[in-house]
Amino acid sequence: MSGRTTRTVLVLLLVAGAFAVAVFGPPVILRLDLGPSVGDLSTAERAASLNEIRAMVFQGIGAFVVLLGAYTAWRQLQQNARAADEQAELQRQTRLTDRYGQAVEHLAHDNQAIRIGAIYALNRIAHESEAERAGVITMLSSYIRTRAPWPPPAGAADVTRPTQLPLRSRAQDIQAALSVLTRWIDDSQDLPEWLTADLAHTDLENGNLRGRCLWRVRFRGANLAGANLSETDLRGTDLRETVLTGADLTGARADDTTWWSDGVDPATLLT
Q1: Are 242 and 220 in contact (CB under 8 A)?
Q2: For the CA atoms of 226, 227, 229, 234, what is the dihedral angle to 10 degrees?
Q3: Helices 112-128 and 43-106, interaxial angle, to 10°?
Q4: pLDDT (tens digit per residue) in 240-271
Q5: What phi-psi label fits residue 50: left (phi over 0), alpha (psi between -120 and 50 degrees) or beta?
Q6: Where would you find the membrane-spanning parts of this chain (predicted)?
């Protein structure tokens, strides 16, 4: 039996019970009230007393019906509000999905400005939906690995960069992606796996990561030469085989879970 059918049956039973009380209750109430002296009442007095009792019973039934109607209306308002909230949440999720798909599509565009716009669109999505943050981090990590591999593929332009250009100047989209994905790494999360972001074998020379949370980020084999890593959180960070020449690690936070290359003395880098 459905919930609506059950409620209908209960209402019918209550109505039938109320009329039964109105019809058969007054004589019982009168006998209980007057006891043996009820037989001393004249026919007119008895009828008047029964009518008064019935009037009070009907008033009580009327009050009950009003309260029941108010309660039913309140429950209906609650259900309508929940339905409206669910519909609004469904629409929000649909819009997020559409925006996410559009942003991912734009990441492959030839125009760097459009790619940067897509990166910041993903940042807004991560801001609006906590559930989407892990996906945004993974997507931007993949983007950086694809567009900034280290070492560069054969035939790529000279990578020595003698002018020491900062990452934001030579690859603005990579710096933007790096800034966004590290913004959403949360060291209080209970991850199902060790890794938060995989940036292994990426070219991040002269990148700016100052003050970022790099908790459990994989930089193995990456090029972080000249990068600003000051005040970063390096707990659990994989820095094995990572190029750190000229990198600034002043005030960086590392512990026993930080993975360093063989022969590297962290004390000399973190001072």
Answers
A1: yes
A2: -100
A3: 150
A4: 999 999 999 999 999 999 999 988 888 888 86
A5: alpha
A6: 55-74
